[in-house]
Design a protein that fits this description.
22% strand; Rossmann fold; 2 domains; six-stranded parallel sheet; XdhC_CoxI; 355 residues; 15 strands; alpha/beta
Length: 355
């Protein structure tokens, strides 16, 4: 599954290029609990087709009803939406919050842009498809839009009569090895919005690959990492258990801005990997601090599917800036369990599962 924002903007562009009237809704403010974060977008076409989300569904239903009635002209009181962007709030009262399915006390405000320019949308979508981070600025007085490439992701801002929202290219995941664990992890990454590339020079593994939507390449892993050009929206994970394939790829990945670099393996294998990378590749201690392993969170996983859940959970936590408790790290949790096994009277707190 591709990045949701790119999907919304591409669909909106296609509608507008086909001559359909449509609007773009953006969550610009929230108070209390909110089902969708600030910056979330959805697009609504004149025939009621919708892509994206600004709530759990009830607000979308209200917007669809209001605007399809207006576009159809069936109800005189509903005028065809047009002109400069406008604001609409949902959940202002307790009754409305209940009606629209908002959490208790939740309120959100949307900015509605009517009939966005298809050429500007096409420029934005093409930039995102080319892997560029794009800043979109909307002048509220008349809806004029300007675009420029951004150097870093930014939070949505609404001040001085302009809305600024930054859209990034897809998060990307490069997986080294095309085994069964990789198939589960690639599947989870795809439905989490990552673009997935799988590298394995071993033909017998590539030939058995069965996950649609992931790009599979057969070059040597270190060359693939170089060509991948990992950035702050990328992660690189080695899953082959073969140092000949994993180590060089990891060494190159540690030179990039990838937000997550890790490798499968036991605590002992992880220590041996560190020793090899220092001795043979002169990897610095600072770079090794970025190398995650054993990867995943400690949930008692044993099967490939459960281990993939464990890894994906850690990747998403790092992506979202969440610091996990140390006792959820695989190595730390296993060390604590070893202490407890050797001394049944030892107090081990916070260990809820194992892998």
């Amino acid at each position: 599954m591709e990045n949701l924002d790119v999907m919304v903007l591409r669909t909106l562009r296609d509608w507008r290029q086909a001559g359909k009237r449509a609007l773009l809704a953006t969550v610009v403010r929230t108070w209390g609990s909110s089902p969708r974060p600030i910056g979330s977008i959805m697009a609504l076409a004149e025939d009621g087709a919708v892509v994206g989300s600004v709530s759990g569904g009830c607000i979308e239903d209200d917007l669809i009803y209001r605007h399809t009635q207006a576009y159809s002209g069936k109800e005189p009181g509903h005028q065809i939406p047009s002109g400069p962007p406008s604001f609409v709030k949902y959940g202002v009262t307790a009754d409305e919050a209940h009606r629209f399915g908002l959490p208790c006390g939740g309120t959100l405000e949307l900015l509605l842009e009517y009939d966005p320019d298809p050429d500007t949308l096409d420029h934005l979508v093409r930039g995102l498809e080319a892997g560029r981070l794009m800043r979109r600025t909307v002048r509220l007085a008349d809806g004029a839009v300007s675009l420029e490439e951004a150097a870093a992701p930014e939070e949505l801002s609404l001040a001085g009569g302009v809305l600024v929202n930054t859209f990034g290219p897809e998060y990307r995941m490069l997986l080294i090895g095309a085994g069964q664990l990789t198939e589960y992890l690639a599947t989870m990454a795809l439905f989490s919005g990552f673009a997935v590339t799988v590298c394995d020079p071993r033909e017998e593994y590539r030939g058995a690959w069965s996950v649609a939507g992931a790009q599979v390449v057969g070059d040597m892993p270190d060359d693939v990492v170089l060509a991948f050009r990992a950035d702050r929206r990328s992660c690189v994970i080695a899953l082959t258990h073969d140092p000949k394939l994993d180590d060089l790829a990891l060494m190159e990945a540690l030179k990039t801005d990838a937000f997550y670099v890790g490798a499968i393996g036991s605590r002992r294998n992880n220590e041996a990997r560190h020793e090899r990378m220092v001795e043979h590749f002169a990897v610095s201690a600072a770079d090794l601090q970025r190398l995650r392993g054993p990867i995943g969170i400690y949930i008692g996983s044993k099967t490939p599917a459960e281990i993939a859940v464990s890894i994906m959970a850690e990747v998403l936590a790092v992506k979202n800036g969440v610091t996990l408790p140390r006792d959820m790290e695989v190595a730390q949790a296993k060390n604590l369990r070893a202490v407890q096994a050797n001394d049944p009277g030892a107090l081990v707190c916070g260990v809820a599962g194992a892998r």
